[in-house]
Amino acid sequence: MKRNYCLSLVLLALFGISVPYSAVAADNVLSSQSTQQAKTITGKVVDVAGEPIIGASVLVKGSGTGTVTDINGKFSVEAPVGSTLVVSFVGYATEEVKVGAASDYTVTLKDDTQSLSEVVVTAMGIKKEKKALGYSVSDINSKELMKNKQTNVVNSLAGKIPGVNITQAGGAAGAGSNIVIRGGNSASESRDNQPLFVVDGIIYDNSTVNTGNSGTDGMTKTATTFSNRVMDINPEDIESMSVLKGAAAAALYGSRAANGVIIITTKKGEEGAVRVNVSSKYTYSWANKLPEVQNLYGRGEYNTSGAFIDKTMDSWGDRIDGTAYDNIGDFFQGSSVWDNSVSVSGGSKNGSFYLSGSNYHQSGIIPTTGYDKTTFRFNGEQKYGILTVGANVSYSQASTDKTLTSAGLYGQGGNGAMTAVYGWPIDDQMSRYLNDDGSKYRILEGLQDLEDDIENPYWILNKNTLTDETSRFTGALNASLKLTDWWDVSARAGIDKYTTSSNTLRRAGGAVKQIYQNGYMSKGDVNYQYITTNVMSNFHKTFGDFDLNLLVGTTTEATKTTNNTRWGYNFVTEGLYSFNNIIKANQYFKESTVRKRMVGLYGEFRASYKNLVYLTVTGRNDWSSTLPVNNRSYFYPSVSGSFVFTELLPKNNVLSFGKIRASWARVGKDADAYSLGYYMWPVATLNGGKYGMGNSWTGGSVGLKPEIQDSYELGLEMRFFNGRLGFDYTYYQSKTKDQICAPRLAQSTGYIFLTLNGGSVENKGMELSITGKPIVTRDFQWETTLNLSGNRGRLGDFIDGVDIFYVTDAQIGAAKAGSIPNGGYFLGLTGNKYETAQGPDGKMYNVIDASTGLYKDTQVETNIVGNREPKLIGGFNNSFSYKNFNLSFLFDIRLGGDIYNGTEYYLVTKGLSTKTINRESVSFTGVVNTGTTAKPAYETKTITYNANETYQVGNSTRSGKYMIQEYYKNYAKNAYNFITDTNWLRLRSISLSYDFKDLLKKQNIIKGLTATITGTNLFVWTNYKGMDPETCVSGSGTGGSGSAGIDYCGVPATAGMSFGINLTF
């Protein structure tokens, strides 16, 4: 009833309340004429929930007499006994009631899913009936987004849309998230597999900006956390999000849309009085799961003879006889967030406006860290006869105070805060990083040089600075001309521009290489600018039962990215942190500019017959500046169709709607800029020496072609019982060939890598969405949705001479996510493992190396040890409404997919893992080779090492304590020991809200008031023994196959509770 409230009021304003009127057609207009032998019939029209329907039409069939229902859904009409009342309203199935002896009737109207077709936003912002689409499109509205409002709108999609896999990069303030639709399509580590984002028709960059790099200021992807730039949007401004998953759905956007498209439509003003909306929300969150460590043994280790060694930060020492500190638990703090937003909107018949502002302030769970964001937006539109003009402008400013996490700065030594937190000895109080006199406290002072120390996390947080700030402006001007009732022309010009500035400061006295111990600083700027134009002409005609539409258009894109980095070391005067305090010989500057241009022509032809059959054909040709002249132009078509078979069936109360759809598409994807040749570095002074020109590690290719993806999709959509139950099933398959990749070469070529075309990525999968309204009464409603999807991606078709594809740079401990053999899984895991052999009993055993007395490892990191891709992901979303209360919750589901527990690997090597708690005795069974290398003969053997004994191992004598210690270190060499085939059921969100509308009826100032309490990530049921299994070690910006499923000393994920209010004036 609520969704028709505005329409109902319009009908009442036009026609009055229960006032007869006349028109020309008897069956669908009203008349004041009376009928002989008529009597007064009264009644009420309600929906299936018992709510009154305002403005419903009540006609006496065949007479022209009728009326409309009043604000309470009641009606009164003159009708004779035996006549038929025809009751109808937009969006509901029409009901006919036979007039008998009774004089009062209650008529219930059911939702008509076929009379009010669902409309979705598709490519180029074109709105289409969903039943006409030959491909899968999922959409989510602002109401659903706000149930668990996230400052990063990517996270709001988790578990809600099939085929969409989202991995949050930990719980650090301002951390980004990675989103992939239907698996990755590009294999190279430098290639992005995240979808294209389009906001109000303008492509919106979602890069994870890393202002530095390992070759200049030492910044790497694992050094700290970075934001993905869609976080710059205020979620309160979003009206809807549409996810275009397949190539056919996204083809009109060109080569940038090969990984799917997410279309964001922001709010507009509505006709009527000016409306003011204010929202405020407070959130408190905490680290939801921390690694477990042993609390029995302290710092130290043993040499081969069993003598104790104090010169180490590892925890292989004796039992603690004093305090065991909870260094990990004491390090993290609670996080607070204040999120405030205000908007003003309004409009008339010829124009509208929307103006908003927001502020977001977060303190992180790591001390001294935080994230702040301020946004402003204006949307406006005005009509002048056949001309409509509009503008969209937004500005945002985001800043992050963060810290080095899993790694130090490349080339400078040192470490990140998180590796130190998790690896700090429990017999030392980590929070003590200064002596009483203010000097630096060092555990190993006098035992080793400063540069060999593990830096204390509190020193890193309080003595070093790591910040970034992003200022962003986006704007668009658009105009459309309605030349005739069948022809319109539109044009749009837009810009997306931002600058991200970063600052890094290391004060003197840090545990880094000696050359940097007098301090280091760097400043970097990334300036991104994207300018686009788009002109479309649309023709629409109906010929009898045929509906035809032709769209043609052209688009231009120009992208420019400039990266400036300045860095220097050794401050002359302590405490003055400026480049003016660093001698010129120790300062460096680097500037790079990347330009790219693209021009596209596109067209789309749509045809439908009645409401039965729909056909869509598209074509687009792009010219890209990143490809060689001969291959610069490439064309890709698509065809899709749908068949609404229920149009051929008689109407019934069971099957309301049924549709079969199919599509095929071919899309291209161009190269990164400057992939055709090679570039050289200019002469530089480094560490007092002169260096000449140096060339890039990667050579280019003048014959490079675009990647080409062929994609197929089949789908079945059915709805039952007037929309009370429905499902949507999709099967898809895609293959992206001519991969733009950089295989490793012999270094004698002068390069390490060479950019060329070779290899393919194939994805196969399914998506299933089941929706239902199991209970609908006057006061209580239950709506539920179950989403499930699964994908399998594989690499293949390697070129001759290439055995391994390097699809990402994530490498931790004994495992790698990037070295995949031909035919291997796209999200495969490779790594070191133990050698195995068959024992006398026919079973397979680990091989024991007689020279070490331990299991023998392969010393090869390309063994296939797992697949990070889940077998099934999904979400179970529910909403319960009782009067003014609403309870909503979302369960996130994952079945299968390997996770490498690199954090546990690290704890084992440090002697802190609970797996290493048995220090008195260890036993293990394997096989030993009693024959020769050429003719091995294996016998089963069980070895036991006791702490207080000595052993002859090979040609040496070893103490039991030493062998136990080495047994655990050797345990870390086998990647299988840290891999879990992971399942989880996660309570992603739960919220309870109350609408105070009943309390607002007696006043006219406040139009709406809602209060909401929300819990996020409160429970995770999983077989994974590490921290939160939703993890990606290299953050959200890693290309290729990414780093999802690699857990290594990251910032733990958070759980939280929030309280918010929403006011409308």
From TrEMBL:
Secretion signal, residue range per the UniProt entry: 1-25
KW Transit peptide (keyword) present: no
Subcellular location: Cell outer membrane
The UniProt record lists the keyword Transport: yes
Biological process terms in GO annotation: iron ion transport
Pfam family for this entry, one: CarbopepD_reg_2
InterPro entries linked: Beta-barrel_TonB_sf, CarboxyPept-like_regulatory, Plug_dom, Plug_dom_sf, TonB-dep_OMP_SusC/RagA, TonB-dep_OMP_SusC/RagA_CS, TonB-dep_rcpt-like
Domain of life of the organism encoding this protein: Bacteria
GO CC annotation terms, alphabetical: cell outer membrane
Topology within the bilayer: Multi-pass membrane protein
Alphabetical UniProt keywords: Cell outer membrane, Ion transport, Iron, Iron transport, Membrane, Signal, TonB box, Transmembrane, Transmembrane beta strand, Transport
The TonB-dependent receptor plug domain, residue ranges: 131-261
Family: Belongs to the TonB-dependent receptor family.
Record-linked NCBIfam families: OMP_RagA_SusC, SusC_RagA_signa
Entry protein name: SusC/RagA family TonB-linked outer membrane protein
Gene source species: Bacteroides clarus
